[in-house]
Amino acid sequence: MPAPLAALVEAWTKELDPTIPGRAVVPPNARALLLAATAVRRSEPILAIVAGEREAEDLVDDVGVFLDDTHHLPAWETLPFEHVSPNVVTMAKRIEARHRLTRTGPAVVVASVRAVTQRLSPTTIEPLLVAVGDVIDFDDAVTRLAELGYSRTDRAEARGDMAVRGGIIDVFPPNADDPIRIDFWGDEVESIRTYSASSQRSLAELTDAAVYPARELLVDDRTAATAADLRDDAPWASDTWDRIAEGVTFQGMESWLPWLAPPRTLLDATTCPVVLFDPVRCRDRAQDLIDEEADLAAALAGTWGSGAPEAGEHPPLYLPLELGPVSDRVLDAPPQPSGPGDEGYEVRGFDAVAGDPESIARAINRWRERGVQIVIAMDGEPAAQRVASVLSEHGADLPVVDVVDEVTTAVTSTGVHLGFVMPSIGLGVVGEREIAGRRRAHRSSRRGTRREIGDAYRDLNPGDFIVHHHHGIGRFAGLVHRSMAGVERDYLLVEYAGDDRLYVPTDQLAAVTRYSGGESPRLSRMGGRDWSETRTRIRKEVAVVADQVVELHRRRAAATGHAFGADTPWQREFESAFPYEETPDQLRAAIDVKADLERGQPMDRLVVGDVGYGKTEVA
What we know:
Mean pLDDT: 87
Largest sheet: 6 strands, parallel
Strand order of the largest sheet: 1-14-13-2-4-3
Distance between the termini: 37 Å
Low-confidence stretches: 443-456
Number of helices: 17
Radius of gyration: 30 Å
Structural class: alpha/beta
Oligomer: single chain
């Protein structure tokens, strides 16, 4: 599906094309359209650099409404010297974005200074490409996936897994929402399907797929050889070099990238045009990253052991933002002129009171009279319909569309972070900020892993053991349809000892759970004492554990813990880089946790929340 506002790029005229290399003043709210139009008119990928990570995420969202081939190249969320691997999804996005910059055709890749100046992994970013009808040696495909960092398992259920069964390869690319099943007939790809990681059932047919590397740093021959040489050059970490030289992948391996990779950044690895927004802030941010890494090294150098490099002698993760070697393809784009000679793009305000429909309707009609078409980009269909209805009542009739096919006044259900009005091209796009006076919600909807109640029972097979909370352990005998008391409905048929049977209505499935013990259990007898005695015994054992827990808490209350200090500037900088707007509950949880950490007692707090509700953000 094309980008919802792709047709508006046609309003961009040749006279507005920026000169690359060169310099042009680009207000922040004109960045998205400039990038999309430049990529389309030059028919090549564009790398856009901004100062902060949040800024990059907002910009890639806005470019995406004008151009569908848009990518965010994120920075690692880990710190230098932190022996923790970055999130696999973060690494996958980086690989995919880097690979897109090496191909032809219009595209925009947006990255923060932190992402651009990070030392690059020297290992491959090329994906395994498969399509229905391709002839690929099956064993070669399995070997290739292993070389791309995929771990062979019985079932590919987690990102980075692959499983091989007969002529079928299951693989879960880290950048995919669902794993992929590649079915071979000999060496010919017969079908490609996505499937559910939990149920293993097929979901959708695909004609082709690109399987990117599972990790950003792979242990290939070159990396293994570099590690082997480091045994002599840096013997203080010989255990680590031994593991890498032997081809072992481990948690936190990426923290050793500065020793394993040459000093190259994204700018060294690409040949596409580069747009540097707000050059002064970007250069300051690049220097801040270098200084912060040096301060961190000074604080940790004493813990690296005998023979380790002194602070400042280690190979850095973050490198200078060197634009000299690529100056022939860089557009400097400050947000405002620094002198009378600076030329750029004129962007006007919407000139309406946010939240006042009468003022907004007047502004739309006023701009129409001047030949400027206004597109209102709201978050979601309900908001778009509501705004269109309210404006209609105040004299501004605008159609609601999913995709804007021409430069015309309309309301669409895909929002933008920063709106603009450019009289020079007769176009304006305004969003939540200009219409409702509120900041656009940045968090995109995430697909949760919670399943419907019935889903947990669809994988039950006759003969599987289940537990009923009243009657105990039984054997599932199937799903049956029965008429009882004149009512027809579906039941779970459960068999118990002594040929007893229980029919459980499908609307009472909460009373039944799958048996999760590690051995074949003995069936309970309905109405017997064995299940009630088992529950009584468990209650007594739980009571013993409860007494132990009480005693543990009594000792903890009397113990003295480590009291952490108040937030440092680094902590505040880290929090300010957080890419989402915290909810009130997240803020309250973070404040409470910090208060616990600053007390001189052992911390005793549990942060609870469902999948995707923000526990990691609090941590």
